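Re: [ENG-882] Designed sequences occasionally contain unexpected residues at chain ends

Forwarding the minimal case from QA. Structure tokens:
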């Protein structure tokens, strides 16, 4: 954004609660990706899935997330970052609840694919809002978002294993769904994003 751009086109600064909601959402999304690692053995014991099926369950979300980043990411640059963010959280919650209710291999694979797509939509939108919401410190904001994502992923297997051991397999999916849905009211109050200037955006943009 150039210095002579009118102030009306500048994105409002993110508040502390809004920034925290983005960081918590990032951690919970990657926690949802990682928690299944600790549950693969139990899924095989309970449902009798073959080993290749466990690989599908574990890997599908990462492939879907990669595809989501490439195909959905550019939409965040066109002024729809807040809509993408809230929609991805809602879809992610639905996918986690489907995982909690699933009993067949195709259901687990499909739910994980949907969750991966939601993850692939969330992070480009979150990066866009973090940068435009605090443009004076983009490196620090991206670092905080990446740290939250890594922390969530690393804690996923631990949290998933503890929840499954204490409360059962299905609660391991329901608990992060409830936590993720709690961030929606705050995200709905995020400032509206400002579209990038120019007719097009790139897939690798923030």
């Amino acid at each position: 954004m150039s210095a002579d751009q009118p102030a009306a086109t500048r994105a409002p600064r993110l508040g502390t609660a809004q920034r925290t909601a983005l960081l918590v959402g990032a951690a919970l999304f990657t926690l949802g990706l990682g928690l299944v690692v600790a549950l693969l053995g139990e899924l095989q014991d309970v449902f009798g899935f073959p080993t290749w099926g466990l690989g599908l369950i574990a890997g599908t979300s990462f492939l879907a997330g990669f595809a989501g980043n490439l195909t959905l990411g550019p939409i965040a640059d066109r002024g729809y970052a807040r809509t993408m963010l809230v929609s991805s959280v809602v879809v992610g919650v639905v996918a986690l609840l489907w995982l909690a209710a699933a009993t067949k291999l195709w259901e687990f694979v499909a739910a994980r694919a949907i969750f991966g797509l939601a993850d692939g939509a969330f992070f480009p939108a979150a990066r866009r809002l973090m940068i435009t919401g605090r443009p004076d410190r983009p490196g620090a904001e991206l670092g905080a978002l990446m740290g939250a994502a890594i922390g969530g992923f690393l804690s996923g297997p631990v949290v998933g294993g503890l929840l499954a051991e204490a409360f059962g397999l299905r609660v391991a999916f329901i608990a992060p769904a409830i936590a993720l849905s709690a961030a929606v009211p705050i995200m709905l109050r995020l400032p509206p994003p400002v579209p990038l200037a120019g007719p097009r955006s790139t897939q690798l943009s923030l």
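QA comment: On inspection the terminal residues look reasonable. The radius of gyration is 18 Å. Proposing we downgrade this to a documentation issue.
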